[in-house]
Write a structure and sequence with these properties.
The chain is an alpha+beta fold and 206 residues long. The protein is built from four helices and 13 strands.
Length: 206
Amino acid sequence: EAIFDAMERKETYATTGSRMAVRMFGGWEFTAADLNNREPAFAGYSKGVPMGSELPPKGKNKAPSFMIIALRDPIGANLDRVQVIKGWLDAKGQKQEKIYEVIWGDADSRKIDSKGKLPAVGNTVNMETLEVSNSIGDSELKTVWTDPDFDPSQPAFYYVRVLEIPTPRWTAWDAMRYKIKMDPSVPMTIQERCYGSPIWYTPVNL
């Protein structure tokens, strides 16, 4: 019953297979204090809306903030990064989209470069045993992120995407199981992902 209630609210997320978990709330007043308490979801619901919801309009000089919490699969791989994907209609009515790197593992050693690119997290897959070392990435990633490009006159949506560190792809398991050598063009590792439902913003004048 709770599953169908969540589907009706659109407060859902999906993964490519891994059992990672993610929560995302949108609002206008979130702070780091909301994130760093024992029950951040209480602040999420009381001060904003969950993923799958409409973000109510606010004052024209205010940009929305999003509280995001991602946890790794308890028996899986660490997390590489969390991204927010924003889509909007520009002044000409054209559809636009942008990917924001909002938080990532190994933050002390990984910095966004001058071109806006975040270095790869690395790869610890042992291709002989297909074991993965969780010596890279983080087990939990959380942040309060504010849209730096917000235009209150433009309709927009935001959704979260979470990436794991590399793990063996099914081709690697087949190669080991059947003792075959794959063509070099065949990818042998994969970064499992998680996608949350969007939060929509509609200007008052629409």
